[in-house]
Specification:
The chain is mainly alpha-helical and about 160 residues long. It has 5 helices and 2 strands, in the order ααββααα. A two-stranded antiparallel ribbon has the order 1-2. The longest helix has 26 residues. The termini are far apart.
């Protein structure tokens, strides 16, 4: 845990050092955004004592910490941005990579209840992949027709 806190501190200091130099407006904006995100994630990680908000597993910042990819600490929106949720501390929790990916489009509370009842591995991922595949079929077909007709008129 102490190693992770020190890692947050090193990352924040590195970004602050970049900001103290001369940067373009775009680079300055990007670094300020990065600094803001790091501070929020550090606060959430410390508040949760490094535990995943869903399954309770210990999380870490890097794969080089000797941990598994599924235990990487990730920021999870409790209320999705698409539903009006923000990026702040009040709408975020730290979850492990596995829980973040498994949640899909389930509401956060419903997902946490399922994980507590059945475990992460038992939860089926609910996603919109089928809908995306169906809509892509139309666009792929339309693109194929476009290419076909344009090649015929050129030849």
């Amino acid at each position: 845990r102490r190693k992770t806190v020190l890692e947050f501190k090193k990352r924040i200091e590195a970004v602050e050092e970049k900001l103290s130099g001369s940067l373009s407006d775009a680079a300055r904006y990007r670094e300020e955004y990065t600094l803001h995100r790091l501070k929020i994630r550090r606060e959430l990680w410390l508040r949760q004592r490094g535990k995943c908000a869903c399954c309770g597993a210990d999380t870490h910042l890097h794969l080089c910490d000797g941990g598994e990819k599924k235990r990487l600490a990730t920021y999870e929106h409790v209320i999705p941005k698409s539903a009006g949720g923000g990026n702040g501390v009040d709408n975020g929790v730290i979850t492990c990579h596995e829980c973040n990916n498994k949640r899909g489009v389930l509401p956060f509370d419903e997902f946490v209840n399922k994980v507590k009842l059945h475990g992460v591995t038992a939860v089926k991922q609910k996603s919109r992949n089928k809908e995306r595949r169906e809509s892509n079929k139309f666009y792929n077909y339309a693109w194929a027709l476009h290419v076909f007709w344009n090649e015929r008129t050129i030849s």
